[in-house]
Amino acid sequence: IKSYQARQDSCLDRHPRLQRKLDIFGLILYSVLTFMAAVSMLVYIEECIYIYRKVPNNKKSVIIWVNGAAPVIGTMSCLGIYFSIVVFKFLILMVEEVGGDEGFLKRAGKHKLKISTGPCCCCCLCLPYVAITRRSLFLLKLGSFQFALLKPVFTILSIVLWTNGTFDLADLNITGSAIWINPFVGILTIIALWPVAIMFINLRTALRTLKIIPKYAMYQLVLVLSQLQTAIINILALKGTIACAPPFSAAARGYMLSQQLLILEMFIITLVTRLLYRRQYDPLPEEEEHDDNENTKMAPVP
């Protein structure tokens, strides 16, 4: 840790006159990124107005939450907290699209859930199918809800520890708090993503007319870009792979690079999700359409 801090100090010391200056390219870059973030929020606000006017009441809240993942992440720095709620809301969205809890149980009463899916059990093909009941549906919701509840708690805890000087991402000692909090949050993330994957695998055929596959792809893309990409860039910055560039240290430059990429990426995703969610929200037929596809993931009860 001391050597890392020494590298940052020496980097800035070598360029004392550049510490408070930003070149023309930097000004243009930040202007363009600010414009993209502003346009993303305007598109999102317009989409919220459309959803409020055209979408049934039981779907308004979840669609607004899910649809806001890209513009909110691209505009603000509350990445983990907001997306933890989106994970839970996307699961609720899929349930609401088939008629809510009652509609889901009625539609899937003769089927079973395939649980050998990622990110937890994609290699465990021997796992048995699980009957679809109120209890199993409650457990799926609970698995995603715990992340929406505990992620903000651990984020606030990390901020409190950071203000006390006991939370440092560069401190990988066994006595450091970061080495315990971050892996635990990672486990909570994997547990929360599993129920969403289970629900998607089992409902993708029934919801294919509602473009659930590209919607799920956008949800997964936001996950990878906002969580995995940011973590990789931060690790590279802490290891010194990303060099310092005054007026920024290596850690600050890595964080800045991550935010710049996210603004551009979330701007594109915002435009794509607008096309996916801007449609007429007619209810699905009461009965499932006949489907002879052998790859369907909803298996009938033997």
Automatic annotation (TrEMBL):
UniProt entry tagged with the keyword Transmembrane helix: yes
Residue intervals passing through the bilayer: 24-45, 65-95, 144-163, 183-204, 216-237, 257-277
Pfam families for this protein: Solute_trans_a
Compartments where found: Membrane
Bilayer topology term: Multi-pass membrane protein
Record keywords: Membrane, Transmembrane, Transmembrane helix
Gene Ontology annotations for the cellular component aspect, listed alphabetically: membrane
Highest taxon above the source species: Eukaryota
The protein's name in its UniProt record: Solute carrier family 51 member A
